[in-house]
């Protein structure tokens, strides 16, 4: 019998309560690696709940890497606070230096009409009236006179705190949040406040993150994107996308999260969690934010780029107290921050429930499109991670990936090569975004890709 108690009067769904308590048992060491959990049927009987509750909680924890289901044998704990897996210290590449050309930049052809990229989310036309309402409100609201709070609009921070608690499991006071002009702006705010030293960035990884680190005169060291990291060398920070590795798609397993935090403590470094698209899971509930595990070590970066639109240029940053103070001090002096109209519009979108509706409708669309991409691509390429979010990444030899990319280009579609995200990892393939096109365009693009791959 597990020492858990479910509260039927709480607003939190029972599977989420159960998952949260099992997670806490693993984190506290009450449950250790290799411990076998009661079957979902036995636990359901013990707790007096339906089996669907225990199954859903086990599925969630398995997706997060806390548990492992062994066929015919049961469900076991795989992650504990002190990971038993051999941690692989691999800061692989030597620093990349700024070059005249941004890392991984590709020239964009003229004439390509639609982009199947990772940065264009679905926008539901039925939500347009709500969008216009938000901007009408901006037009009649009085902007603050003079420079406002460097943390951003208070009401927006309150709404964000409530939402991050509800959707990401982060319990925050509004004053702990700094509104930014997006993820990259959050990085720009953070980098000057870190002590001198290189920054480890996932490889393959988000090109804008590596480029921003270089822009701030720091070296980038390559952090293997899908391996356990047990040593950060002399890096002062490690930038990661734990909920949905960009662009390989994997969820960072719980044991790897704990190992990375341990490594960060050892190196006196911070973990930069880029939580860019975590709400777009269609199989299990969104994986909780890594920042929950150690608020003193993790700088959390959120963005409206995926759930609203990237052109809004809005995001939010939650940093440990010392860094928070330093960031705030510099933002006060430099007046860096997000534009008030964007903040005010996002406030309305949050208050009206618009953002929740937008996420739900985009999630439905992605859940329908992702398997379509998978069906078309799987005869020719290997899927790099679970199906989640608004893109999927396919491993292919570079020559095949280029041939397919070129064929799509001729048909009027721009698709990114995985090699442009890779530094020393040398991974190759295609990164196919499916948020920003219509159903018909997606089918045409897939036909062009698979036609080339079949040849
Ligand atoms: C990994 C990752 N992080 C963050 C973002 C969003 O960045 P920003 O908020 O600066 O627009 C993107 C957008 O494509 C992304 O792919």
> What is the fourth-level CATH superfamily of the largest domain?
Type I PLP-dependent aspartate aminotransferase-like (Major domain)
**What's the end-to-end separation, in Å?**
58 Å
What structural class do helix, strand and pairing data support?
alpha/beta
Overall number of strands = 16
Helix content: 25-40%
Indicate the low-confidence ranges by residue numbers.
Answer: 83-100, 103-110
How many structural units, i.e. domains? 3
Percent strand equals: 5-15%
Query: For the CA atoms, what is the radius of gyration?
Result: 22 Å
Spatial order of strands in the largest sheet: 5-11-10-9-8-6-7
The CATH class assignment of the largest domain is Alpha Beta
CATH level-two architecture of the largest domain? 3-Layer(aba) Sandwich
Named CATH topology of the largest domain: Aspartate Aminotransferase, domain 2
Number of helices: 13
Major beta sheet summary: 7 strands, mixed
- Outline: globular
Mean pLDDT across the residues is 92
Question: Which ligands accompany this protein?
Answer: pyridoxal-5'-phosphate
SSE layout and pairings?
Elements: H1 14-27, E1 36-37, H2 40-47, H3 51-63, E2 67-70, E3 74-77, E4 114-115, H4 128-140, H5 154-168, E5 177-180, H6 183-190, E6 199-203, H7 207-215, E7 220-224, E8 237-240, H8 254-267, E9 270-274, E10 298-303, E11 315-318, H9 321-334, H10 340-351, H11 354-377, E12 382-383, E13 391-395, H12 398-410, E14 413-414, E15 416-417, E16 429-433, H13 439-454
Parallel strand pairs: 4-14, 6-7, 6-8, 8-9, 9-10
Antiparallel strand pairs: 1-3, 2-3, 5-11, 10-11, 12-13, 13-16, 15-16
Helix pairs in contact: 1-3, 2-3, 4-10, 5-10, 11-13, 12-13
Bound molecules: pyridoxal-5'-phosphate (PLP).
